[in-house]
Amino acid sequence: MDMMLYVSEDCSYRASRVDMFLTILLHPHEDRVVGIKLKGVRFLFERVKAILKLSDSDFLPLVAVLEVALTAALTASMTDASDGAPDTLTERYAEVRSIIGGVDVPSEEWQPALQAA
């Protein structure tokens, strides 16, 4: 699958879809983010690699991938007149930044998602 799942706690969770890239995973009994699911990882990874001029052996900050997803989602929401919620998108992505800010993923861990058909 062309997606990545990151969970910061060992617990069950509820899923809440934010946009075409991001689904946040919420604690089952509290209203706090415990993880994320990012779709379109191949596209996001390649964009971040190009922007940051990273090699295949570099670590990739997860927050950088999230920023690319937010930029793409905001662009999509601005071109879709029926979706007037860019502030909500920005707020939801800000919530997620707090749990993934220090997460660096070795490139080889991205490879299965990048090779998905």
Query: How helical, in percent, are the residues?
Result: 40-55%
Proportion of beta-strand residues: 15-25%
- Major sheet details: 4 strands, antiparallel
Number of helices: 4
How many domains in all? 1
Oligomer: single chain
Q: In terms of structural class, how would the helical and strand content be classed?
A: alpha+beta
Q: How far apart are the first and last residues' alpha carbons, in Å?
A: 7 Å
Strand segment count? 6
Output the helix-strand order. Answer: EEEEHEHHEH
Radius of gyration: 14 Å
* Low-confidence region ranges: none
The average pLDDT score comes to 77
Description:
- It is built from four helices and six strands.
- It is an alpha+beta fold and 117 residues long.
- The protein has one domain.
- The protein has a four-stranded antiparallel β-sheet with strand order 1-4-3-2, covered by helices on one side. Strands 5-6 form a two-stranded antiparallel sheet.
- Strand 2 and strand 3 form a beta hairpin.
- Helix 2 packs antiparallel against helix 3.
- The chain is globular.
- The mean pLDDT is 77.
List the helices and strands and how they pair.
Layout: E1 3-7, E2 14-17, E3 22-26, E4 33-39, H1 41-52, E5 59-61, H2 62-79, H3 86-100, E6 104-106, H4 107-114
Antiparallel strand pairs: 1-4, 2-3, 3-4, 5-6
Helix pairs in contact: 1-2, 2-3
